[in-house]
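Work package 3, deliverable 3.1, input record:
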Amino acid sequence: MRDRYSDMVNSRSGGVLAGMLGLPRPVRLRRYAASEPLLAGPVVVRGVAGGPLLPEIKRVLTSVAAAAVVTTETDSSQPASGSTSRLGAVVIDASAARTLGDLESLRASLSPCLRRLDPCARIVLVGTPPESMADPTAAAVQRALEGIIRSVAKELRDGATANLVYAGQGCGAALESTLRFLLSARSAYVDGQVVRVVPAAVTPPADWCRPFEGKVVVVTGAARGIGASIVGVFARDGAHVICLDVPAAGDALARVANRVGGTALQLDITAADAGQRIAAHVAQRHGGQLDVLVHNAGITRDKLLVNTDADRWGSVLGVNLGAQLRMNDVLLDPQRKGALADGGRVVSVSSTSGIAGNRGQANYAASKAGIIGMVQSLAAQVADRGITVNAVAPGFIETEMTARMPLATRELGRRINSLGQGGQPVDVAETIAWLAQSASAGVSGQVVRVCGQSLLGA
Amino acid sequence: MSGNTAGPRSAVIVGGNRIPFARANGPYAQASNQDMMIAALDGLVARFGMAGEAVGEVAGGAVLKHSRDFNLTRESVLGSRLAHNTPAYDVQQACGTGLETAVLVANKISLGQIDSGIAGGVDSASDAPIAVSDGLRHTLLASSRAKTPLDRVRALGGFRPGHLVPEIPRNSEPRTGLSMGDHQAITTAQWQISRESQDELAAASHHNLAAAYDRGFFDDLVTPYLGVTRDQNLRADTSVDKLARLTPVFGTGQDATMTAGNSTPLTDGASAVLLASPQWAAERQLPVLARFVDAETAAVDYVHGDEGLLMAPAYAVARLLARNSLSLQDFDYYEIHEAFASTVLVTLAAWQSEKFCHDRLGLDAPLGQIDRSKLNVNGSSLAAGHPFAATGGRIVASLAKQLSEKGSGRGLISICAAGGQGVVAILEAI
């Protein structure tokens, strides 16, 4: 639905009024379009304590943007104050930071850049997982990066975002898909997040704009809202999408499928044989090739726990969690034809409610927190098959569901995040598509919030 | 076809789609035939991932048609997600329309004239084509033919207030003036079909259809439309006792056994079936549910009282069996369209009657009895409703899926139609 407040403060007269009253003015976020450059402006790349990942980072940046846009002000000792050109992004490799002195270098590198950011600019900090540090000081310094990035994300204005990537030792090429995502407009509503990337064998796609060329993707809950958007993004990026939803939503489902030349599969995922039916469909129609499984289907039956009966409890847990667990059992069975291929991807939709909890949503939060547990456990189980399992946790996303919220709740949800606005279904879809890429082999067992750095579940 | 020495190739049923059927003047009251046909086609296109693709042809039709719908099927294709270079044509054979379209498409596939095609039908009893009276029409046409203004005024002078009474389509036979129910009531009385047996058949139809929905049988056969997710006429909780309480609406005296419960209601709906050559389906990795084996059409002279209006399928089946060297018992499923419960029961009785089979069908022995547990196993028109031209597509797709689930055997389809006609067909598992 329309965000009338944003419309107002972004209009000419409304803007003047907002300026006089000092009202927050959420900008229109830059969003991905194949015709537009990945980055809005030049990038500054810097390293702290040598920046061992700089060559890889520069290689990625040079391949995504013309060399001319990449400013290699790599030496933190070089005075940055002299330069005043606007920046599309700042990437700092702090993976070698081990001392408090390194943190000061980081400050000195980052701080001057913050005044030069374009609207919707990107800050990406690269660190080393603190848990991999034997030395307490080094672990503290690496963990400090998280505090820095979360605070900077809150400080930024005009749709700019800041995110941290903890890159495991020897990460190299496995970083590329994540860097590209975080730097691009695809990550418009991902802010203040920490993503872990581990070394992995990665085959880059022939065309980064169509990473799903020739892939077969199953999306549940595809008839409307976020699900329909997920279908759109995968199809845009080259996939054949099998769109699933309950038979009762079949007419909307058919429209979604037909819009992208996909297939509609009317199926209640709570049916005992749902996984088998998906596998049979894939086996027959796609020669058994299934590359990506997106568990998006979910329902809410909100009530305070004190008033929640077994029915409300069970239906939410059954659809949002039980069905996924059951389907995974079948679709991750390596022996079954039509199940997920080795090197496949599973992405589940969790929720910030599952992280922070939400009054009146004990059942929903249980299911969405459960997904996080499932993802973390499953990721380890299927790692040897090259399969990754991840979750996204949307915050306030503008859908039919949020449009039905009472006005005050809706406005609060929209504003209490660092970007001052609700996200769009496509923001969730783009995040899922990043995780589902073949090139994201190094990202698994993660929960990435798509919430504009909401205060909930922070 | 000189190179084709192996005889005609097979035509197979890939799958089907329909919208839930709804009672006339109900939820689809505002939907036109074209709207519903497009919905049925688009659901089929989505099911098989064919957006933007062409098929060899689409054959469709409607029984109740507005004059503007002269090219209904082609217009529906243009409004659908099929490629717009898909040819289409209309067929009209009363309630036999839907099955006849499947026969036509299957025949063309068998002959190698097309590799794929969609057969379908639609009917709206709500959005009925009310026409101006013949008097008003003749007056207006005379006026438009006039060459001078004076002649035009003179022609319009032929107008009479009575001309304003519109022409409403009626569910009656033009040559007898009797409604289909009146005709069937005569046949029902002749064959002494009891009220109870009719109500039993009606209750079974509802129970079978409800059970089929419950087990997900229609998940890949039906796409919801305008908020309707199941056939609106379906009464899962009906029973012989409940049906017995209804007042008869057709027939007189003790022969008045036909009620609103054991007769089909006026219904809105649309259906479509995708047929193809096995090769076309294989190239696209599409399922093949059943083979379209053969079909037969018959007509009877009901006008002069020689035969009942809806008895033609009894004749058509006899000829179809003979041509295929099959007995009536050689089937695993019987799909006999329930125009009225008594239509089914009379047809079954006729096949068992030595006299009928000898005198009317020219057979030495009766065709015999069928195993009633194989009849309309997933419900039929009494429960689902009967949007005239859409019924054939409903039955073909459902029977094909039943055969595919069973994995073997064959099924018989029998559909009676106005004008004393009947269209019947055989499908076979692959």
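Confidence is low (pLDDT under 50) at residues 73-82 of chain A.
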